[in-house]
């Protein structure tokens, strides 16, 4: 499956952004989906994941209560709604597809989007 992430940009602390990931190719509904992020000089880290049906979601502790992941299988899209953004949320955000379910490990995902930059300023 091919993935295209969009929606990044510059936002002030406390603001909101909505990231979108459009999928094409294989059946989108067969994949669990995840969002990861990578800040400069740091390793890529898990942000959020959603099961193939959308019935289960999981979040990193650092974003729990502020970010919401959702999906629309009819539109082949997964969304990451980010509220109450903090300086430490600044990173390149990647969407990814997991053919075996959903999880927190990068090695579980075999397709990755190109990334979209989120910059949070004070």
What does this entry look like structurally?
The chain is an all-beta fold and 122 residues long. It is built from no helices and 11 strands. The strands form 2 sheets. Strands 2, 4, 5, 6, 9, 10 and 11 form a 7-stranded mixed β-sheet that branches. Strands 1-3-8-7 form a 4-stranded antiparallel β-sheet, with no helix packed on it. Strand 7 and strand 8 form a beta hairpin. It starts with a strand and ends with a strand. The mean pLDDT is 95.
Outline the fold blueprint:
Blueprint (H helix, E strand, L loop, with lengths): L1 E5 L2 E4 L4 E8 L7 E7 L6 E6 L6 E3 L7 E6 L4 E6 L8 E8 L12 E2 L3 E6 L1
Parallel strand pairs: 2-11
Antiparallel strand pairs: 1-3, 3-8, 4-5, 4-9, 5-6, 7-8, 9-10, 9-11
**Biggest sheet, in brief?**
7 strands, mixed
Number of helices: 0
Q: Determine the N-to-C terminus distance.
A: 37 Å
Strand content: over 45%
Total beta strands = 11
* Helix/strand order, N-terminal first: EEEEEEEEEEE
User: In oligomeric terms, what are we looking at?
Assistant: single chain
Per the principal axes of the C-alpha atoms, what is the gross shape?
A: globular
What is the residue-mean pLDDT, rounded to a whole number? 95
Radius of gyration: 13 Å
Structural class: mainly beta
Helicity, as a percent range = under 10%
Uncertain spans = none
């Amino acid at each position: 499956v091919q993935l295209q992430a969009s929606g990044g940009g510059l936002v002030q602390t406390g603001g909101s952004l909505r990231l979108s990931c459009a999928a094409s190719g294989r059946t989108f509904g067969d994949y669990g989906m995840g969002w990861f992020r990578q800040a400069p000089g740091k390793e890529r880290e898990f942000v959020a994941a959603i099961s193939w049906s959308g019935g289960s979601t999981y979040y990193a502790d650092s974003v729990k209560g502020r970010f919401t992941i959702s999906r629309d299988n009819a539109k082949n899209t997964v969304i990451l709604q980010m509220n109450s953004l903090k300086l430490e949320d600044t990173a390149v955000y990647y969407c990814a597809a997991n053919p075996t379910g959903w999880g927190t490990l990068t090695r579980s995902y075999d397709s990755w989007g190109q990334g979209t930059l989120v910059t949070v300023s004070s």
